[in-house]
Amino acid sequence: MPPVRRPARGRHVVTQDGDRLDTSPDAHRGPDTVIRAGAGAKTRQDPKRKALDVRVMDGSWPATFWMPAPARLPTGIRVYAIPDIHGRADLLQAMLDAIDQDMRADGQRHQGAVAVFLGDYIDRGPRSRRVLDILTNNLPDALQCVFLLGNHEHFLLSFLEGPSDPAGWLFNGGLETLTSYGIDAPSSGFLSVSCQDELRKALLNALPERHLVFLRNLRPSFRLGGYFFAHAGVRPRVPLESQALDDLLWIRGPFLTSTEDFGAVVVHGHTILPRPLVLANRIALDTGAHDSGILTCGVLEGGGLRFLQTSPSPATVGGGPRPTPYPFS
């Protein structure tokens, strides 16, 4: 087969089957971007390696082999799915360094690598501004990126656009975001209209233009091969192309308890678990990075799956043990 052709950064990935994946901002307009899977690559051995404080994880800890995945990707494509970062710029940078090293593992960069960020970049953690700096200006050159909208970015955008529920955002992690931009935040739950207006103006003045453009161009979902990527999940029995934004950003119960086939395997964050979970119809990746210090990245290629994880640091987080290897189910 011909080699994968490397596109200009941030525009397209061309698979060995001739399919083309558009990752440009102009493509981020809805949940219906699809690439049909071609013949899948065989799963292969992955050498042991370490990158800073990031470990390769699977049931044998550390991983030496890919494990079976519940869906397939097009030939020549590898996906790094990264869930809720929540202001933990330290963990994001460590993970990006590990991904960069992972792409170099065979002696050359993996030319069909796509990072799908699942939303909730901001709030709760201390360095939301730095997270957006990294995502808008400091990513590995060989990595094509897709950025999804999370409920916390939606919170912030709603606050900027006018009357909303500012306390709902500010006291659900928004205070830390304001502080990261150098804005003095209120300490009580009551906000007068004038105070809301002052905070809105202060945040608009403090947000770099590239941060605002980034936030306004986040897409609600993304589909590739046998996978559908969304921040929170999907509503069962609703076609993937017809999912409501509120469900993509917020859903829990009906989605988490469903054993139905959604039309694709859903890769999501939003709901915190002590370790990643793999089921026949979904893959859950949020391990509560802002508090646990554990940021999990799902690595998908062909019909295989493995994980990269940061390890908690007692010096920077409140604690919590490293997750035990999870059962594949």
UniProtKB/TrEMBL annotation:
The molecular function GO annotations come to: bis(5'-nucleosyl)-tetraphosphatase (symmetrical) activity; protein serine/threonine phosphatase activity
Q: Which Pfam families match?
A: Metallophos (PF00149)
E.C. designation(s) = 3.1.3.16
UniProt xrefs under InterPro entries: Ap4A_hydrolase, Calcineurin-like_PHP, Metallo-depent_PP-like
Q: Which GO terms describe its cellular component?
A: cytoplasm
Q: Which EC class is the enzyme in?
A: hydrolase
Q: Provide the Calcineurin-like phosphoesterase domain boundaries.
A: 77-274
Which stretches are tagged as biased composition: Basic residues?
A: 1-12
UniProt keyword Ribonucleoprotein, yes or no: no
Spell out the residue ranges making up region: Disordered.
1-47
Which terms under GO biological process does the entry name?
RNA decapping
What is the recorded name of this protein? Answer: Serine/threonine protein phosphatase 1
Provenance organism: Roseospira visakhapatnamensis
Instruction: Output the lineage of the source organism.
Output: Bacteria, Pseudomonadati, Pseudomonadota, Alphaproteobacteria, Rhodospirillales
